[in-house]
Structure formats: C-alpha cells, structure tokens
Design brief:
heterodimer, A: 195 residues, B: Rossmann fold, Rossmann fold, five-stranded mixed beta sheet, 20 helices
C-alpha cells in the first residue's frame, strides 16, 4: 500500500498541524511515512505545501513525483490548483471553498471553483462555516482533515487519537473544539456521492 | 527503544545527545534552526549546554573551546553561516579537535530561504576533514553518533552535511541506548597555537591523516556498492538524499545497473575504481554542485568512459533535485504527460504580517525618500528583506548578514547621498557592530535604521542579543553622537513624524542612527497566548 498526498494552503493556516497529526496516526497504525515541510521565509503569508507519503513498505523519495499524488488536501481554493500537475488521473482534490485573499491579483473565485470542478473527484468544503460551528474559525484545518479522513489509509480512531494528543500538549480546551471540527468535516465527505 | 517522530534536523540533534554531547552552539538560519530548537528543549532535563550564539563564528569558536577542554561539542548552522565561521573552521582543522567536535551544516539547494545554494562539501574538502552526508533520518542519527567518535579518534573536526529536503522532512527513527561522553584530558596545547612554527608542523599532520580518512571512508558501511553482472553499460552513483530519488526508480531500470551510494567524504576511492571498471557510463546524481562528478572527471576525463551528471547536462546545474528530474536523467518516462495549467495562477510570495512594525518603518522611509530619488537603501537579512516587494519597494540590497552598514559606508565614502542602511536588531548583533564602529570613527555621511523588534523573527523568534536599552547603549558606546541617535515608534499614526525624523537625519552631514522600536507581532501573540 502506498498513499501520497499534498497538503496545501497559506503560511499560518495550520498545514503543519494537519501533517503532524497524520504522521502521528500513521505511526500509531504501524505505517511508514515521510513528510516535507516549509520553514523560514516562505512561511510568512506565502504559499506553503507539504508532501506526505504513507506506505506499508519502504518510502525513499521525500517528494512525490508529478502525476502520482492520490490526494490534494487544501485549506485554500487557489492553493489547491497550484499542485494539480502532481495529481494522479484517479486522484482527488479536497479543498476549502473559502478564499484567503492576501495578494492584489487574486483570480476571480468563480474561475478557481470552475477549475476545481473539472477534477473528476473533487470535494469543496465550506470549512470556515463548519469551523465556526465547531467553535472557532481557526479550526478550518481540522475540518479539512476530517473531510479527507474517509480517503486516507488511516483508521479514523487513530487520527482522532493523534488529534487529541496534539492539542492536549498545547491547550486542553482546544481538544473538544477541534474534534468537533474534524467530525463536521468528516460528515461532509461521507455524505458526498463519488460516482 | 521506541520509534520517535523527528525532523531530519532533530535526528542530528538526538544523535548528538545520545553521543554524550556536553555543549552545542548555533545561530538561527533556515534550514538548520530546528537542530538548536530541539537541543534547547531537551537540554533542561538532560543537562547539557545548548545556546544560540551571537553569530556562527562565535558559535564555532565556543564549540572549539569545548573541544579543547576535552568535552563533546556540536556547532550547527545554515550553509552561508559557515562563510561567517570559515576562519575558525578552516584553522580548527590544523589545531585539531580534542573532545569530539561535530559541525553540522544545512545546505539549501533550490534557495528556499537563502541567497545562494553553495555546497558545503567543498568546505569539508577545503579544510581536509571528514564529512558525512545522510539520506534518511536514521542515517542522520547514526552518522552524528559516529561523527563524535571519529572526531576523537582522528583528532579532527567532522562535518555533517544536510540539505533542506532532509533537514525539513519529518519521519521516524529508532534510537539506540545513549552513551555518556567521557571527558578527555586537556590536549597538547602547542597544537592550538598556530604560530608559523606550529602551523607548518600541524599542516603536515593533517596531510598525513588524509590516507586514514580515505581508508575510513572506503570501509564505511554507509557507502554501499552493488555491482550488477547484468549491465556492463550503466553504473549509477548517488550521494546523500539523491540516493532516495534513485532508489525510487531503480526497479524500473532494466537490466539492473551497478549502483554506488556515497555517504562519506573524502570519497571512497576504492569503490569508485571497482564500479568504473565494470561499466562504460557512470551517471553521477548528487544534490548541490557537481562535486563528485568534477572530482572524477577532472579536466581530462576518463579515456574510454563516459561520466554523466550535472556538467554533462543530464541534470540541471542549479536548483533542487526532484524525483522527476532524476527519472528523466535515468531515461525513464515521466508519469505526467502534459502540464495541466487550469488558469494563470497568481503567485503568492511571502510577505510581512498584517500590522508588522517593519511595514510602518518602510512606509515612513518611503515618504522621507520621496525628495531623494538618488538614494540607495542598503539592507540586510531578516523578515524586513520582504520590504523589497510592493507596496513597500523600500530596499535595494540583500547580500549577507551585516553587509548593509559596511556597504552604506563605502558608498558614502565615494559621495553617495543619501546612503541608508536598514538592518534588524539581531542581524546588527550578528555582524553590524564592527562596520558601525568604523562608520562612527570616520563620521561617515550616512543614515542607519535599526529595526528593533526584539527577536530573530524570520526563523521563529529566537533570542536577539542586541535589543532594547542595551542596543541603544551599544550604539552610543561605538561612538555614535547622542543627538544623532534617534528612537522612533513605527506605528501608522506616527507616519508623518517618523518620516520627518528620517528626513532630518538624512540631511545631517554625518552619521546618524535611527532605532525603530516595536515588538514583533508574532512574538507579542506568543506571549499573550502564554499568559492566558
């Protein structure tokens, strides 16, 4: 088994938190993983991405070859499009539909959503709304992780356990809120028909 | 022991702790910062010293002092940091190490967060010391542990070369039982005093150790040679992280080629001789400059053999390797046939945080310089380098740490006016004091703006040595006149006032320093969160 995903978003949107939880869940499940990160200058409000590879056998390259990515999981719609050339012909795009506009030449949102809808397996999630429903707009990243969870080769229980561990170490109060966000995202994906 | 999830940087740090590290020093710089971050987190409980130094040169010297005193020392930095530390680094090969001395350098091919992509293997070669190049987290851990032992056995510093893709890749490793570093006797002091009479003798010693280093490299299990009787035409050499891209694709290459994985320098000559004997073409895949390829090829080449790599054009000379680039060099088709570009995608470059104090300083500077279109603003390295981009478009240079003040002084010497330097507080502490001393003693006609946000912001908020009142006292102590040492608070409401102060000081025919004081927003937020 091999599963390659690209996590995308803008610096500060919590991409690395998603990655960290998936890594941890993979470890709990006895899978191998490699996951790249962006640190330093690029983190300041710029486009950030993380290649995350899961497998039950050895993983060599830290980077995913173009055309082999199984899932693009993006916390921002424009950023979801940036890595399309990595996507396998059967790959999925799961993205937040709410834009993060911090550049003057941000393309029209309709054009972006149009392009995402051209991908055979796509899912647009109103992560901002669901995160607020869970208790904080900052939990959009966990909504997106929830929305991706049915497709990852990871038990939902392991993801939730990793999520709990992650937030417990920072702030006890955040655990319940982020678990709610995860569940709301997961329900959206489970309701979606993929035929 | 239990599996641990770590960054490549952290694998090195953990290896050092488990090798009985006594003290570690560093200066923040991407992609090496997380080595020291990890060491600082672990140091409280495990009782070793882990300190951010004022710059890489001081960090290196501190580590060298630890080594002379008989304890194990680690010094880590980004690739360009070794330029700053080059003086003690090169000379420490002649003095030799006593307690194990390991220098970790993280290169940044592709320049993700750097001004160049220099390859530190040349530095190891230059200093004639041993260098490890890991390809995985486990290797980074094991090599670091071994590096301390080797350093003590051979009596020389040892380098670990990382690249961004490993430094900032997260995976797991399986640690082994830690060992305690044994304090060694203080060594032979005459080795350390590089007067010509001693240095000549020590250079001979280092030269005589080269055969031993090469032998160690040839016997190292981290290098692996797999000769394939099936394929007499192609052999592949892959170094460090490049080996991962080769292994990813190797099963598809038929017939199976001979393969040499290189992890240590000086190069394991014996293994190269074995593989070149068996094949017609040797393809060299390495991250960074074509170090191995040019070593093998020289300027004459190998009669009857083809050496392929970056120099031959089979791989690009610049940028970072990717699985796709390596696939193409191996003659395999890409998985993707056409480029899917759905619509023109606007780039999203990094930018200053909304409300950043630097933004207010830049806007005031821009306002003040409206009447001086001939101004040159020499700047430096930090978040504020993003002031290059619109809407600020406020700076004209970024060369190396501390360069702004020296360059502004040189330009002022030949009549450039206004000659403005813009530098952050930590960069000023790193390399700005000495050029400011020179400018103060000659009362150069220039204006220095120091952006004091109290932290090393770009790399995640490490401690700054040159901030607050302490900074002001230092500036005065260097000889800057009190009446031309001005302090401003960069806030939107102070724009007009601040621009006026900058204008006044530009018009003063001598040296002025303006310190713009406001805390980094990220740091302020962190503090607030801590208090909740």
């Amino acid at each position: 088994m091999k599963y390659d995903l690209i996590l995308a978003g803008v610096g500060g949107q919590g991409i690395l938190s998603i990655a960290f939880i998936i890594d941890r869940a993979a470890l709990l499940q006895g899978l191998n993983f490699k996951q790249t990160e962006v640190h330093g200058m690029a983190q300041r409000g710029g486009a950030v991405q993380s290649h995350l590879r899961l497998a039950d056998g050895p993983i060599y390259s830290d980077l995913i070859p173009r055309g082999k990515c199984d899932l693009i999981l993006s916390v921002e719609p424009l950023e979801a499009l940036r890595y399309l050339e990595y996507l396998d012909s059967q790959g999925r795009v799961i993205t937040n539909s709410v834009p993060y506009v911090n550049i003057p030449d941000y393309p029209p949102l309709e054009a972006i959503l149009e392009a995402i809808k051209k991908v055979k397996f796509h899912l647009l999630v109103e992560a901002d709304k669901l995160a607020r429903e869970a208790g904080s707009s900052r939990a959009q990243n966990m909504v997106m992780l929830g929305a991706a969870s049915p497709f990852l080769p990871l038990e939902s229980e392991n993801l939730k356990r990793a999520l709990k561990e992650f937030f417990e170490s920072r702030d006890e109060k955040m655990v319940a809120l982020n678990l709610r966000a995860f569940e709301l995202g997961r329900q959206v994906a489970l309701k979606q028909s993929w035929e | 022991m239990e599996k641990m999830v770590v960054l490549g940087d952290e694998a090195v740090a953990l290896g050092a702790i488990h090798a009985g590290l006594a003290a570690a020093y560093s200066y923040p710089g991407t992609p090496a910062s997380e080595i020291m971050e990890f060491l600082i987190r672990e140091s409280k409980e495990k009782r070793f010293i882990a300190t951010w130094s004022v710059n890489e040169k001081v960090a290196y010297e501190a580590a060298l002092g630890v080594s002379y005193a008989g304890k194990r020392a680690l010094v880590s930095m980004k690739h360009v940091g070794l330029n700053v530390a080059a003086d003690p680094f090169i000379n420490s090969s002649l003095t030799g190490a006593n307690g194990g001395l390991v220098v970790v350098v993280a290169d940044d091919p592709g320049m993700h967060s750097s001004q160049n992509e220099q390859d530190s293997r040349f530095y190891a070669h230059f200093a004639r010391i041993f260098c490890y190049e890991p390809s995985s987290h486990q290797e980074a851990y094991e090599m670091t542990r071994q590096a301390f032992e080797l350093s003590e056995a051979i009596g020389l510093p040892v380098m670990i070369r990382l690249v961004t893709r490993l430094a900032h890749s997260r995976s797991y490793l399986v640690p082994r039982e830690p060992v305690k570093g044994q304090a060694r006797q203080v060594g032979e002091k005459s080795h350390w005093t590089l007067l010509p009479i001693n240095a000549r003798r020590r250079f001979e010693v280092v030269l005589n150790k080269q055969a031993e280093l090469k032998h160690f490299s040839e016997e190292s299990p981290f290098n692996r040679l797999e000769l394939s009787p099936e394929n007499s035409s192609l052999g592949i050499v892959a170094a460090g992280i490049a080996a991962n891209y080769v292994l990813e694709n190797l099963p598809e290459i038929k017939p199976q080629p001979s393969y040499l994985k290189v992890s240590t320098y000086p190069l394991p000559e014996k293994l190269f001789r074995k593989i070149i004997e068996k094949v017609e073409t040797l393809l060299i895949i390495e991250e960074g400059y074509p170090f191995i390829e040019s070593t093998l090829k020289g300027i004459i080449g190998l009669p009857g053999k083809k050496i392929k790599g970056k120099l031959s054009g089979d791989l690009p000379l610049s940028g970072e390797l990717t699985p796709d680039i390596v696939r193409q060099a191996l003659g395999l088709p890409l998985f993707i046939r056409e480029q899917k570009k759905p619509l023109p995608l606007a780039a999203r470059p990094p930018q200053l945080c909304p409300g950043c104090p630097h933004a207010d300083t830049f806007l005031a500077l821009k306002e003040a310089l409206k009447e001086f279109p001939q101004a040159i603003v020499f700047s430096d390295i930090g978040c504020y380098t993003l002031g290059y981009f619109p809407p600020y478009s406020s700076i004209d240079t970024c060369v190396c740490m501390g360069a702004s003040i020296g360059m502004a002084k040189g330009a002022a010497d030949v009549g450039q006016h206004p000659s403005v330097a813009v530098i952050g507080d930590s960069t000023f502490g790193h390399s700005g004091l000495t050029p400011l001393l020179e400018a103060a003693r000659s009362n150069s006609r220039m204006t220095v703006i120091i952006l004091d946000n109290g932290t090393v912001a770009m790399t995640g908020g490490q401690k700054s040595y040159a901030s607050g009142n302490f900074l002001l006292k230092m500036i005065e102590g260097l000889g800057v006149k009190r009446e031309h040492l001005r302090v401003i608070e960069p806030l939107p409401r102070n724009l007009t006032k601040n621009a006026e102060i900058i204008r006044e000081e530009i018009n003063y025919p001598g040296l002025s320093v303006i310190v713009a004081v406001r805390e980094c927003l990220q740091e302020a937020r962190k503090k607030k969160r801590g208090q909740e």
